[in-house]
Design brief:
The protein has four helices and 26 strands. The chain has helices at residues 2-9, 43-51, 245-255, 306-309; strands at 13-16, 22-23, 29-32, 36-40, 66-71, 77-82, 91-95, 101-105, 113-121, 126-130, 132-141, 149-153, 181-186, 190-195, 208-212, 220-222, 232-235, 237-238, 262-263, 265-267, 269-270, 274-275, 278-280, 282-284, 298-299, 303-304. Helix 1 (2-9) packs antiparallel against helix 2 (43-51).
């Protein structure tokens, strides 16, 4: 966390938390919970922090991101909400100290917040997103943290704005990808990874990862029934290739094999109706019955490690 310390030393805005729902300086958010809050908005510091953030950071971060850092959050719930009902801002979050529960809410009714990166450490029990139009990478450093973390995105899909010059009488735009999460990395166990209105994974150009650092025989991945688990590598970690999960995904797809650098993890089940393309380096307690493929479950090839997914 050297980059964060450097940025704070350079003069980040600090807010000592003293009362419920105190405004977070420089943003349209507010905070309620234990600990203290600092905000970094200087573009050079923002890029430095996000590029060097734990577990691979963010590639080509947007310098307009407001980095919100909550320190000493142990012993309570860290709740982040909109100051004026809704926010469409761009934020990254670092929550330190092991908050029991973390709520990141930009306003479910009208909010469309975006976060490229969220980091939490300690024995956090649950992280919930609300009112977000995009959630990129979620990292939880929880090794040895009991039964694991529950990560849930309840953000609702909402229409995309009309393109410039598009007639107002044009058909209503289709809902965007709100509710999805691009990547999730835990150093410890996963209890549940859940999206009420979306799915998990990246895109063909930028595949995502679900990397579960400790075997989680009770862990589940559960998107919305229409939300895909696609363009994603599901594994424990990489043995030697640092955090370049996208390159590992691509290499596995190209060779149609789970390569030795990709270490297997263990989960209970992937409760999804749309899966693939994907790399399934995962031992599942409950595999998908072959009789359901093509009926209740749609598999989109290639799926490397399909034998781990389907019984």
């Amino acid at each position: 966390m050297k980059a964060i310390a450097t940025a704070l030393a350079a003069g980040a805005v600090m807010m000592a938390h003293a009362a419920p729902w105190a405004n977070i300086p420089g943003t349209d958010l507010r905070y309620s919970g234990p600990g203290t809050v600092s905000v970094v908005t200087d573009s050079n510091d923002v890029v430095n922090i996000l590029t060097n953030a734990p577990y691979g950071g963010v590639a080509a971060p947007d310098p307009a991101t407001a980095v919100i850092i909550i320190s000493n959050a142990a012993g309570g719930n860290a709740m982040i909400g909109p100051a004026n009902k809704a926010s469409s801002g761009l934020f990254a979050f670092f929550i330190h100290g092991g908050a029991g529960k973390i709520d990141i809410d930009c306003g479910q009714a009208k909010g469309s917040g975006r976060t490229p990166y969220v980091f939490a450490d300690g024995g956090v029990g649950k992280i919930k997103f609300k009112g977000m139009s995009a959630v990129g990478k979620v990292v939880v450093d929880n090794k040895g943290g009991g039964e694991g973390v529950h990560i849930q995105n309840i953000s609702k899909s909402r229409p995309q704005p009309l393109a410039a010059g598009e007639a107002l009488r044009a058909p209503k735009p289709k809902p965007g990808p709100a509710g999805s999460i691009g990547s999730v990395i835990t150093s410890g166990k996963l209890k549940r990874l859940q999206s009420n209105h979306g799915g998990f994974g990246g895109t063909l150009a930028e595949p995502g990862v679900i990397a579960i650092g400790e075997d989680s025989p009770n862990g589940q991945i559960k998107p919305n029934p229409k939300g895909p688990v696609a363009y994603v590598l599901i594994c424990k970690q990489l043995a030697s290739n640092s955090y370049d999960y996208a390159a590992a995904y691509t290499a596995c797809i190209e060779t149609n094999a789970i390569l030795p650098d990709v270490e297997m993890t263990k989960l209970k089940k992937i409760n999804a109706k749309v899966i693939g393309p994907a790399v399934i380096a995962t031992t599942l307690e409950n595999k998908i019955p072959a009789s359901q493929v093509g009926k209740r479950v749609k598999l989109t090839q290639p799926i490397v490690g399909e034998e781990n997914l389907v019984e």
